[in-house]
Amino acid sequence: MTSSIVRAAVMRAPHEPITVEELPWPTLVPGSAMLRTLYSEVCGTDVHLHHGRLSGVPYPIIPGHVSVGHLTAIHGAVTDIDGMAFREGDLVTFLDVHETCGACYECLVTRQSTRCPHRKVYGITYGVNDGPLGGWADHIWMKPGVKILRIPDGVDPARFIAGGCGLVTAMHAIERGNVRLGTSVAVLGVGPVGQAAIALAALSGAYPVIAVGAPSARLDFAMRMGATHVIPLEMPAEERAAAVRAANGGRPVDVVIEVAGVPDAVVQALDLVRDGGVVVVAGQYTNAGDTVINPHTQINRKHVEIRGCWGCDYSHFHRALHLLAHQGASLPWLEAVSARYPLEQANEALAAVANRHVVKALIVP
Ligand SMILES: [Zn+2]
Ligand SMILES: [Zn+2]
Predict the structure, then answer these.
(1) How many whole angstroms from 195 Cα to the centroid of ligand 2?
(2) b/e string for 65-82 if b means 16 or more Cβ within 10 A?
């Protein structure tokens, strides 16, 4: 099925209302296709985009980086990593990062592919002028070379998108933290990334898995996702630190995963981690400002490791789908999605996420 237009929710500039527009259907060269969007998610990044807090964004854009849908209008051979050809109607998702070059210093020498300067991200660093390359649209252009992944049999696409970019980001954060059997973990922040990190830490065999955050409804959800202890953010910082130690037999924890997004959370993470432990900073995706750290007491003398965590690569999507196919049904991912909105209500969806009325909202074109 081919149409002549793509209907998309367009963010023309920061702070401007989002409008539904009709865009031209792209010219499909061999190796490309269209994805008929089933769901695209609304996440905190989209709120930041609307507030103009990310640099290098080529407004106007079609937001929506993690999406799921059916392939249509396949031109030439479009294959998965095993060389198996996709067919029209296949239910898929795709790695939102594209054009990682494989030829630069970051890709080849330091092997930090998520820091490749040539990479582009659907819904974030592709603009409307590049084509229909965002998820808040009835169709998304799968450019040649985009890494497309089948949704495995038995995985409800709604369940995948309920994990969504929080799940793939958490896959990376857990990997950076080297969370293993018996690792004691504290997760600071109980938004979508925090909830997924809690679930993945628990599935990795971590104990205890301590969630620190607010409000209480999200802490209740964290317990259902696998947290063994929850600590409310309202508690004064020193009491909170004491409560984390108490949950871990009186000791500071091995690994702290910061996904709170507030600079002060990194300070708190350094206070909660044990000597020689690991702090993963994954919540500072936009520049939320500075904070004061004492390098002597909090880093040098503690012999601590602080690890940044930027973006995701194909492996995180691949493993996330594999995990959902085998473990996903045991966890209440779907409860994270509290609201679904048509394209025409993209402004309402964004406001609901910005005001934290919902953990996660979906655009259903
Ligand atoms: Zn590169
Ligand atoms: Zn996101």
Answers:
(1) 14
(2) bbbbbbbbbbeeebeeee
| Average pLDDT of the residues in 74-93 | 97
Q: How far apart are CA 65 and CA 286, in angstroms?
A: 16
Predicted TM-score of the model (pTM)? 0.95
CA 141 to chain centre: 21
Tokens of 129: 């002028």
Closest CA to 240 of 210, 260, 278: 210
Question: Which residues does 116 contact at the CB level (< 8 Å), separation at least 6?
Answer: 100, 101, 104, 106, 107
Across the chain, which distance is largest between two alpha carbons, in Å?
A: 64
Distance 299 CA to ligand 2 centre (A): 30
How many whole angstroms from 44 Cα to the centroid of ligand 2? 6
Residues 228 and 210: their CA atoms lie apart, in Å, by 6
Helices (H) and strands (E) in the chain — how many of each?
9, 17
In sequence order, the 6+-apart residues with CB closer than 8 A to the CB of 311 are 97, 114, 119, 121, 172
Centre of ligand 2 from the C-alpha of residue 248, in Å: 31
pLDDT of 2: 53
User: Distance (Å, rounded) from C-alpha 198 to C-alpha 347?
Assistant: 30
Residues 362, 365: Cα–Cα separation, whole Å: 9
Local structure of 96: helix, strand or coil: coil
Closest ligand relative to 282 C-alpha: 2
Task: Count other C-beta atoms under 10 Å from residue 291's C-beta.
Answer: 13
The residues pairing with 271 across neighbouring beta strands, listed in sequence order, are none
Give pLDDT tens digits for 303-314: 999 999 999 999
Tell how far the Cα of 114 is from the centroid of ligand 1, in angstroms. 8
> With left for phi above 0 and alpha for psi between -120 and 50, is residue 305 left, alpha or beta?
beta
What CA–CA distance (Å, rounded) separates 161 from 290?
Answer: 33
- The alpha carbon of residue 350 and the mean position of all alpha carbons in its chain are separated, in whole angstroms, by 16
Half-sphere exposure of residue 203, counting CA atoms within 13 Å on the CB side?
22
